Amino acid sequence: MLKRVPMSKLKSLIKKKAHIRIGTAADAMVELNVLLFLHSLAEEARTKAFEEKSATIKACHVKAVCKRRIRKSKLVKS
């Protein structure tokens, strides 16, 4: 299981952008967004493993899903 990011580290990373106003609950929102991203990544990796008839999710399944997500996000930005 992954450890949580320390709140002090998270707040310092958020506050590096001095020109952006940040609300009081921004650190909680960032942590929730990260959890949602990891959950969706795990779901997609599970479907990828199921497609390849594998009982366990392996690193290659997660990497394949990450590559697909990165490619998709690059297409959206352009």
From TrEMBL:
Its main location: nucleus. One of its GO terms (biological process) is kinetochore assembly. The keyword Membrane does not apply. One of its GO terms (cellular component) is kinetochore. One of its GO terms (molecular function) is protein heterodimerization activity. Gene3D superfamilies: Histone, subunit A. InterPro entries: CENP-W, CENP-W/WIP1, Histone-fold. It holds the Pfam family CENP-W. SUPFAM superfamilies: Histone-fold. It is found in: Chromosome, Centromere, Kinetochore; Nucleus. Keywords: Centromere, Chromosome, Kinetochore, Nucleus. Belongs to the CENP-W/WIP1 family. This is Centromere protein W. It comes from Esox lucius. The gene is DNAL4.
